[in-house]
Each structure stands twice: as structure tokens, then as C-alpha cells.
Design brief:
Number of strands of chain B: 21
Oligomer: heterodimer
Largest interface: A-B, 20 and 25 residues
Helix content of chain B: 10-25%
Strand order of the largest sheet of chain A: 1-3-2
Radius of gyration of chain B: 22 Å
Strand content of chain A: 15-25%
Largest sheet of chain B: 19 strands, mixed
Order of helices and strands of chain A: HEHHEEH
Structural class of chain B: alpha/beta
Number of helices of chain A: 4
Shape of chain B: globular
Chain lengths: ~110, ~325
């Protein structure tokens, strides 16, 4: 897609991809899942995963799979909070873009400049 | 390139990172290759190991290793730790500016690899404790000085030595990159108690001096003459071409020199105390001195209690 995607968007997509799997998921699968929706290089995924892990949004564990240990990523409660705030932001952002781009009315449900 | 070759090249490219970061990244990509099960496609997508290493390093250059694990995050000490323990610095130099190397390291772990340009990256050390400059003559001089620091609570700390608390984060590491087949006027390396290891380096130098106190120095792929190798208690391993006059002096340590050539082209003059000297097929031990008829390429070997091995390949 031609729309530019920033770091925050990448973080949000990675977090939600990981959050969809209750038992966690692994590096290769995350990369493929993210690449299904965004056109990014495979090499950028690892630094993002590592940073989210360092920020306490993701945790890892090793599990045996086909005779070797595979590293699984799982979302933490901190990560869920982060994802939730990304979702709130996204709703606001999308409404504004829809308003501008698609001529839809702006839903001003809450006058709450936090 | 096979998967293993790719990973081992990646490993050598990210050596400036803290050890846990290196392991983490390598394990990730090992898994990745195994899960993708199509090595060629993965390599094509990830780019060269060098390119991949850049993306890994770029993201971590600004993230201190202890940021997350630091328990005393809020205390005053945290600021000191952040400042001293894992902050990295990097220097890059123009190749044409550099004519000689003068390296002097106390207790750091130094790795030298070949790359496109002369560059230096440090991790896990006080940014002020490394001096890295090019002299007007064109000597790239790097040393990590022993300085006394104050942590603001009345404790003084040696910047390179003896900082037992927080040991895990206190791991000075330096990655030196030198261009492949660099031609230098001189190389001078002093290693105190640390280690300096070269990986895949090839460099020629008209004058070389290797000096080790109690550390470990592995310097392979050197082409040159007038080589002066001195070892007190440590270990020196070197290989390459040694033409002209070379001097080996070993007190209690161990020196291994692998010479690219045949023993017939070299003469030697050896003094042995309680140590042992091996020169090609010949072996000398016990107190004695011996020499052979002087040839163009000559080794002057002095061995106190250590062991000196000169082999030919």
C-alpha cells in the first residue's frame, strides 16, 4: 500500500498480531502475518519485537517444536494496555481521515481534550 | 552461502552489541531460518549479513542494555549507570587519513574485523574513558585509559577495572573495523589484561609491534616485516608473512607464530631459559642458546619460562 506507516503503526500491528494468538506465536509467523497487511522488509521485524520486549509489552518463552527450541512471543498485560491505547488513537485518527477523505461527518461524541 | 555461513557472518558483524543482544538476535534468526525452511528466499529478503547487522545495530545503538532490567531505575545511581555502563560510542574515519594503528587497551574485550572503513564502536564503557583520535601523522590512536570516577556518593570507581557491583552490565567491549587489505606503515598493539582477537582481517604493515601483559592477543592475517612480539604472562597467536628481521620475546606466556613460508628461508638466534622453543621441526628446551647461519629473514627469539612456537605453513 502507498500510505506511509510510522513506527507507532508498526508497533500496533505487531502487538495485535501477537495478541490474536492466546498461546503466543513465533518470529517467522509474526513476520508473515504482518507482511500480509503491510509492505515492510523482513529485517525490520526483529528490532521491533526486541524493543517491544524490552518495553515490557511482549514476553518470550521457549517451547520445543520438531526437535528444537522455538522462541514464542506473548503479549503482556502492559502490552494489552498499550494496544488498547493504540486502538483508541486509531479510532480518532480514522474518523478524521474518513471525514477529510470520504466526506463522512465527524462524530464528536466526547468533548474531552485529554 | 549456506545458512550457517550467513549466521556466522552475522555473528561477527554484531559483536559490538552487549552479549545478551547478540545471543538474542542470533537465536531469533536461527529460528527464522528453521521456520521459513527456504534459506535462499530468506537470505534474499534479509539482505547481506552486513546489511542485516546494520538494522539490528541501528535500533540498539540508543538502547542501553540495562534500561529494562535496571532495578534502581529511579534512584540517583541510575543516571550514573546509564552514563557509564552501556552507552555506546562510534567513530568512523576516512581510509586515506589512516597510515598507522596504535592501540592500547587495558581490560577491554576487543574484536577486529574487516569492513569498508576504519571504524571503532564501543559498548559498556564510560564514553569518556576511550580516547580515539587521528594524529597529524595519520596514526589512528585508540586507548582506554584507566581513570578514577566518582559516582557522586563519595565512592570512587576505576573506570576499567575492579568494578564488581553491577558486573553484568560492566563489560567493556570494542569493535574495530579495518578495511580489507589495508596497507599501513606501522601497527602497534598493546593489550594489558583484556583480549584482542581478529576475525578475517588481512592487513599489511611495514612495522609491527605486539605487546601483551597478561591478556590474550590473536592477530591473524598480517603481512609484513620488522615484527616485534613481546609477551609477559599472556598469550599471543599470530600468523601471516614475516619478512626481514623479527623479534620474539617471551617471559612466562605463550607465543605462537605461524609463518607463511618454509623453514629453509628463515634463520634464527634463540636463547632459552626454562622455557621451550619450537622452530619448524626443531625443538629446544632447557637452558641453552643456539643460532643458524644468518639469512635474509631472521627471527631473534628470547624465551624465559614460557613457550614459543614458530611453525610454517
Amino acid at each position: 500500500m502507498t500510505v506511509n506507516t510510522g513506527i507507532a503503526m508498526l508497533d500496533a500491528v505487531v502487538l495485535s498480531v501477537v495478541a490474536q494468538e492466546n498461546n503466543g506465536t513465533y518470529g517467522y509467523k509474526i513476520t508473515q502475518d504482518v507482511r500480509n497487511v503491510m509492505d515492510i522488509s523482513e529485517s525490520t521485524l526483529y528490532p521491533i519485537l526486541r524493543r517491544l520486549q524490552k518495553d515490557g509489552c511482549l514476553e518470550t518463552y521457549d517451547q520445543e517444536c520438531a526437535g528444537r527450541n522455538r522462541r514464542y512471543y506473548k503479549i503482556t498485560s502492559n502490552g494489552m494496555l498499550q494496544l488498547d491505547s493504540f486502538r483508541q488513537e486509531w479510532i480518532k485518527y480514522r474518523q478524521k481521515i474518513d471525514h477529510i477523505l470520504m466526506g463522512q461527518p465527524l462524530e464528536e461524541d466526547e468533548e474531552n481534550p485529554s | 552461502m549456506t545458512r550457517n555461513e550467513y549466521l556466522s557472518r552475522l555473528r561477527s558483524c554484531i559483536q559490538a552489541l552487549p552479549l545478551d543482544e547478540q545471543t538474542e538476535a542470533l537465536e531469533f534468526y536461527q529460528d527464522y531460518f528453521a521456520d521459513a525452511d527456504n534459506d535462499e528466499a530468506v537470505m534474499a529478503e534479509l539482505g547481506t549479513p552486513e546489511e542485516l547487522a546494520e538494522t539490528i545495530k541501528a535500533k540498539f545503538a540508543c538502547v542501553p542494555a540495562n534500561m529494562q532490567s535496571s532495578k534502581d531505575k529511579d534512584s540517583e545511581k541510575a543516571d550514573f549507570n546509564r552514563r557509564t555502563s552501556s552507552s555506546g560510542r562510534s567513530f568512523v574515519f576516512e581510509n586515506k587519513d589512516i597510515r598507522a594503528l596504535d592501540l592500547s587497551f587495558g581490560a577491554a574485550e576487543v574484536v577486529m574485523i574487516s569492513g569498508e572503513r576504519f571504524s571503532v564502536e564501543t559498548r559498556g564503557m564510560d564514553p569518556c574513558s576511550i580516547r580515539c583520535e587521528v594524529t597529524p601523522y595519520g596514526t589512528l590512536a585508540i586507548d582506554n585509559q584507566k581513570r578514577i570516577l566518582f559516582d557522586g556518593q563519595g565512592n570512587n570507581l576505576f573506570s576499567n577495572f575492579f568494578r564488581h557491583e553491577n558486573r553484568k552490565n560492566w563489560h567493556p567491549r570494542i569493535l574495530l573495523t579495518i578495511p580489507e587489505n589495508a596497507q599501513l606503515d606501522s601497527i602497534k598493539i598493546r593489550v594489558g589484561a583484556g583480549s584482542l582477537v581478529t576475525k578475517g582481517v588481512s592487513v599489511s604493515s611495514s612495522r609491527t609491534s605486539l605487546d601483551v601483559g597478561a591478556g590474550n592477543l590473536v592477530f591473524k592475517g598480517i603481512k609484513g616485516g620488522l615484527c616485534d612480539i613481546h609477551c609477559a604472562m599472556g598469550n599471543i597467536e599470530t600468523s601471516g608473512t614475516f619478512t626481514g628481521f623479527s623479534k620474539i620475546d617471551c617471559a612466562m606466556g605463550c607465543i605462537k607464530v605461524a609463518v607463511n613460508g618454509t623453514a629453509e628461508d628463515y634463520s634464527y638466534d634463540a636463547q632459552v631459559g626454562l622455557g621451550e622453543i619450537k622452530f619448524g621441526q626443531e625443538k629446544k628446551s632447557g637452558i641453552n642458546s643456539s643460532c643458524t647461519a644468518r639469512k635474509e629473514n631472521h627471527f631473534l627469539i628470547n624465551c624465559g619460562m614460557g613457550s614459543v612456537t614458530v611453525s610454517f605453513y
